[in-house]
Amino acid sequence: MIGIISAMHEEIQTILENLQNITTTTKGKRIYYKGFLFDKPVVLVFSRWGKVASATTTTQLINDFSVDEIIFTGVAGSIQDHIDIGDIIIGHKLYQYDMDASPLIPPFEIPILNRDNFETDAVKRDFLLKSCQKFLREFDTLISNADLNQFHINQPKVLIEDIASGDQFISTEKQLHPIKKYLPSVACVEMEGAAVAQVCFEYEIPFSIIRTISDKANDNSHIEFQKFAKIIASNYALEIIKNYFELSKI
């Protein structure tokens, strides 16, 4: 059983529309959709925004649905000049940029675990890269030109990069500066991934994350954010996961 998580309904809607033989379970004010996606058994859930919400959802998913792996999909804001709207980031190392228990321990380090990041599963990361590459070879036949044009998406690329998570929506250079200074390898920022990665690490569940770049984490980052998630990111996710199932033969 594969668990698929998104933070917003918009990010997950297209996947949900393709889920077959659905049964639902409501726990902790969240609906868990169990069914078959491209003939594979999955549980689909939207976690809500933030690290606490996503960690709670992930823990419930692991304990109640016996998932063998978890995939998180959604949008993120780029903090690197070479990463543009419409690009795909496959997470490598996940950091919590707002974790700071210094001077007791170094900044970003998670107490007791003695580590400042959580790495995604290497084998599944490689399958996801191939899945994204396959999608990008035909993306303009799967998503309408009108939808691509309204977000100025022309030649999107896929990269394996580090991701940072924190409980704030990054939209100013003042917020960005310390992240770029102290975590220079980070390519994009969001609000859930590192929390999910930590839970998966502690429960020894393979974890992967796919983020579609929706904005440049600047003063315009709020513009059409949810519209982008629904029209672009959710369609990206559906096709990439379809390819992933085929390539990895799960």
What is the structure about, briefly put?
The protein is an alpha/beta fold and 250 residues long. It is built from seven helices and ten strands. The mean pLDDT is 92.
Task: Describe the protein.
This protein is an alpha/beta fold. It has seven helices and ten strands. The model has no long low-confidence stretch (mean pLDDT about 90).
Quickly list its features.
Rossmann fold, 10 strands, 28% strand
Count of separate DSSP helical elements: 7
Q: Major sheet, described briefly?
A: 5 strands, mixed, barrel
* Structural domains: how many: 1
Question: First CA to last CA: what distance?
Answer: 9 Å
Give me the CATH architecture, please.
3-Layer(aba) Sandwich
- CATH class wording: Alpha Beta
Widest sheet, order of strands = 5-9-8-6-10
State mean pLDDT (0 to 100 scale): 92
Structural Rg: 17 Å
- Sequence stretches where pLDDT stays below 50 over 5 or more residues: none
